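hey so u asked for the seq, here:
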Amino acid sequence: MTFTRFMQVGRIVLINYGPEEGKLATVVDIVDQNKCLIDGPADITGVERQVISYTRIALTDFLIKIDKNAKSKDVEKVWEEEDISGKWEATSWAKKLASRKRRVSLSDFDRFKVMVAKKQKAAIIAKKMAA
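ran it, structure tokens below
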């Protein structure tokens, strides 16, 4: 199994630290061995064009064809043509992040209801297995 996710212009990344944590962005240029220039596009993802450290991003499997230092308008156009947001929502990675976010936002009573539902499910399964 070879490594397939390389840091390159057009790579879609997930920001995993900082104020834009959990948002997608596109690598527009590579600054040096520790930083790259990313652009959301801001109208779609809410991430403005900025320089960010590699330690704050995670590479995804998605890659779009853009030129080095492409304008935000061009990045947005290609992003919509490739339907990157739709493809991302379909991945198990995005689903796991969404479920984790949903679980964190539960109230005490919601967690209680989940616990009761799990117990009921386990009882039904045990009853079927015993029969």
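Helices lie at 42-45, 72-82, 84-89, 92-104, 108-130. The radius of gyration is 20 Å.
lmk if thats what u needed
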